[in-house]
Amino acid sequence: MGFKDVFKKSFLEGFTSMDISAGRIMATFAVTCILACYVFLIYRLMTRKSFYSKGFNVSLAAMSVITAAIILAMQSNLVISLGMVGALSIVRFRTAIKDPMDLVFLFWSISIGIICGAGLYEVALLTCLVVTILILVLENLPASRAPMMLVVNVTDVDKEDAVLDIVKKYSNYYKVKSRNLTAGTLDMVVEVRVKEESAFVKEVSAVDTVLSASLIAHDGEVTF
Predict the structure, then answer these.
(1) Dmax of the chain from CA atoms?
(2) What residue ranges are annotated as transmembrane (predicted)?
(3) Ordered structural domains, the chain, with CATH
(4) pTM given for the model
(5) What would the pLDDT profile of 138-163 be if each residue is shown by its tens digit?
(6) What is the distance between the alpha carbons of residues 215 and 207, in angstroms, rounded to a whole number?
């Protein structure tokens, strides 16, 4: 038996439409839909965005089913599988994913479709459980207080030291991010970590020649 015969028996003959029965197709779509709905629910419960995107969440569930269908089609016929690879290789997605967690859920949804399409339903279920536990554990780990931005407008530049003395009183960490001096007026931005936010802003505002003091939260990285 030559190499051509071995290749034909081991590879080419493996792609036959008879290998995928109607029962397996129905089972694959049923399990995929159940797990896709699970991902939909987890994303809805765990997202912390001010504006929840239902369209993105629906697309996560639909992507799992579509991916499973593609995997089933690729397993049924060699020509289809090669055509799918060629077709998908020219697809370019230009939608920017700004939240890293959205990217995690996107890959999670795709992986469910791939695993279920391959018939590894136990692996898909275990993956969902492990990913959910991992996200819950890491999200609830204790972290240090997130930094905030103190924006101060002072009409007397000599009062900068007085403002920084108050900052040192309330915060062990601070960093002056910018100083803008215009016609004797100082606009200063300081990164701080404070617990008593209300008292801190009131004391800064009470300094002579301080026109305004604002404490603003931002989405910077938090160190553990």
Answers:
(1) 96
(2) 25-46, 58-85, 105-138
(3) 3-139 (no CATH), 148-217 (3.30.70.1710)
(4) 0.61
(5) 877 765 566 788 888 888 877 788 88
(6) 15
